[in-house]
Amino acid sequence: MAPEITQHGTNQQHHTIRHHTAPEIILSPTKTPPPHGQRQPHQRRRRVAGGKKEQGGEHRGDVRGKVSPRRLSAASHSRLPPLPTEKIARHRMEPAHSSESEPVDPDINESDGAPSQDGRAASAGTGNDGRSAEAARYSERLLNEEHERWEGDRCPICFLFIGLPMDEHSKTNACCMKRVCNGCILAAQQRGMYDRCPFCRTPHPSDEVSALAMIQKRVDKGDAAAIHHLGNQYFHGVLALTKNVPRAIELWSEAAELGSADAHRDLGYAYYKGVCVEQDRPRGVQHWGEAAMKGHVESRRMLGVAEYDNGNHELAVQHWMISVKMGDEKSLHAIKVMLMKGHATKAQYADALRGYADAVEEMKSHQREEATRSGY
């Protein structure tokens, strides 16, 4: 059993919809606005491309962006390229390939000049060596690519990375499918903007049916985030939809083809755990790998869980060392457990603590801290 594996769940409230895979959708508020308090400047350093840091500005409610929808492609599970499965086919998984060679008639080999049984065994060994080398190259690629968080994890207003877990530190607007951090939502409300999206200024939907119509509009335009989010609604049977897991898998696959790292994450869970689909752990790991190479934090952590399940403790720690430096507290806890079991060193844990602290510091702002104190 791995140190930590997250589970999907739902928690519906009166005016919000929040669950593990779907960010919260903001509906029109019904409570009276809180009294305006003194605003703190939203000043924090942020990391931009190239590893440089710039000074973040005050929350600006009037910053806007554009969504560039792409054409919708047909969903297909078979389009994903096959990956080497030897490294993930050990311990709890069945091997993807058999190393046993078929019996060969010695008379046929001698009379027809066919390769002998020893020759075929040698050929099979060469093939296994080639697949093992391919698996090693892919594992090295996973560890070497993308040690920075996915840019989609930034708040589109303040441009700071959203705190983890993101569902607790942000909300998604159905109108534009933009995930806005709680600090920017508070800043907008302090300016009197309670019934509109703080990003695109569209009025919040009045009920779940209206919210679903907004999401469907983005889906029709080929928005990968909207397609993934609609899949979440079908998976959990919310927003006036009947639960339909096959439809959810289809939508997630479509969103993954359009580049959604969150969709790859959810497909990884579905196949690795066999949730309403035939269990296929190699395929689940493949989806997590695709998301991790985009900088998806949770998928990177789950790659470590998969390696732990296979008994590859050293590789598991290496994956968690990457995700912990993106600000993932669960990865920090996993490394601590590995230290206690003798699978990680004190130096690694100390490095993890420093990296985690640096990542958390870069996600802080006065406005976000005020939002936390206010109960957002």
Which strand order do you get reading across the main beta sheet? 1-2-3
Q: Tell me, rounded to a whole number, the average pLDDT.
A: 76
Distance between the ends: 34 Å
Question: What is the second-level CATH architecture of the domain at 206-294?
Answer: Alpha Horseshoe
Compressed to H and E, one letter per element, the order equals EEEEEHHHEEHHHHHHHHHHH
| Low-confidence residue ranges | 4-23, 35-117, 119-124
Give the name of the CATH superfamily of the domain at 206-294: Tetratricopeptide repeat domain
Which CATH C-level class of the domain at 206-294 is it? Mainly Alpha
| Largest sheet report | 3 strands, antiparallel
Might you state the CATH topology name of the domain at 206-294?
Answer: Serine Threonine Protein Phosphatase 5, Tetratricopeptide repeat
Overall form = globular
Question: Which structural class best describes the helix and strand composition?
Answer: mainly alpha
Helix content: 40-55%
Q: How many DSSP helices?
A: 14
